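Researcher: Checking consistency across runs. Here is GTR9 protein again:
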Amino acid sequence: KWDVLLSFSGMVALIQLLFLPFFPESPPYLLMQKEDKAGCLKAMKELWGEGDYHTEFDDLMKEKSVTKGTKIMNVLQVLKESSVYPQLSTMLLLLLSLQLCGLSATANLQESIIPYVSLGVAICELISVILCSSIIDRFGRRILLWGGYLLMALILLLLEISLLL
């Protein structure tokens, strides 16, 4: 039944939502973005247990020094960079193949509105990609994951309630 399948994915989102705040931040994120050396070592100990992590910490410091001069680019700057065109074309090909797979045709829609549904889905995907990639650097991945899981759990809960009613 659909309500069981929807509630299963909602339960997974709820479990992830409940446990995510108890996990430490990523050690590379703490060191490279926040420049918190003590927090990085503390996160390594929380994730991997007690031990000597100087080798891993030194590797992160080397990576930090290599990327120190690297400029962080926004979405428009990335799109202007010609070195990312092969990866970008692969992603676009994948998105186009999803649009042309016929999912809208199997949703019992009238044939006259299927192109509009496909176009609407493609526009929504494009907007979400642009918005998500823009706000990840501003808010951080942890907050966005937590918010996404919360929103997914709430939407699936509302959908489940509406199916039961």
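Researcher: Does this match what you'd expect to see?
Model: One thing to look at in this run: Residues 73-164 form one domain.
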